[in-house]
Amino acid sequence: MGGVPVLGRQLAGVMELIVAEVRKSEEISVPSMNRYVIYEGFLLPLTTDLTQLGQSLMSEPTDYEPNLAERNPIPSLLGRFDESSAHIGHTGLKMEARQLLEVKLRDLWHWVEVKNEAFGNEVCDTVQEGREVELSRSKSVVGVMGLLKEVVVTKQLCREEGRTVLHRKKGGEPECLPWKSLGTTVTRTLEWAFTDLPPSCRGFLRKASPNGFRSMLRMMRWDQQPRICVVQDGHFLWFDEEGASSNGQAKGCINFLIHKASIEKDGRNPSGFIISPAQPEGWQNPSSFTGNSFRSFTFDASDSEINCDAWISAIAENIHFANLAAEQLGPELFRQVRVYKPTFVELET
Predict the structure, then answer these.
(1) How many angstroms separate the CA atoms of 347 and 328, rounded?
(2) Which InterPro entries match (predicted)?
């Protein structure tokens, strides 16, 4: 009947169904017999067996499984239903049973997905983030002494805040909790180059003289002038011994904030270094030292208590600081920084 063999038990059931319908309406319903034999006798038991098989295959996860969908057995079980019911000719009953099977399987799989989603929502890592929220601004000098004492910078008063960022097992965008005040404030310098001033260095160096006659004696080192040299606050200065001992004026000063400079080792002297203008147009406002706008300064550290590499490192850091500070000060640079020859006492910080 409809492609399903009618066995003894089913035949007895059909007979009982015929008797019951004749007594009730004196008619025999063929659809009712089809349903009894095909649907209830074959398709329904098939859906029950496949549902039980699916339940055994849908084990609940013990932790988050990012590839859970790969072990979803519903497509293969529906395929087995189609294969097992291919000989059934009654399409309506077959589709009804298949839909019933699919609903049962999807209900079972839904709870597996719910359990996996619960594991996926568990927090696997937390990160603390901080930020500073500006409350006010004020102007302040860098210091009361030193070569930068006249420079005015902007101070920011900021409130410190923090928040927790949650990372979940299932990945995706982290969850950020609201920002909360930490109850503390901090003061920052807007021109942050001035937060930590570069290292200073003082010592004895021999400076090559710009005098043309002395330059002819350079090979014998007779052209070198003994100088007390200082690199500090983005400046490089040199004093004669009298000026250093009596707080006199510097013999020369390169202000790296105004005088864009570069430094390199002297190729002819392993203990020497050369400070040169970094820009093609030479030194800007070279009034704090002798020579023209394109003059280079050569120093020899062979008799210095500080080795040449230490001098080069300190000067390079001061040049880097000065370039950054000049960029952050902008047009204010030329109103706040002077080009002059400081005295030795002005170097105190």
Answers:
(1) 23
(2) PH-like_dom_sf (IPR011993)
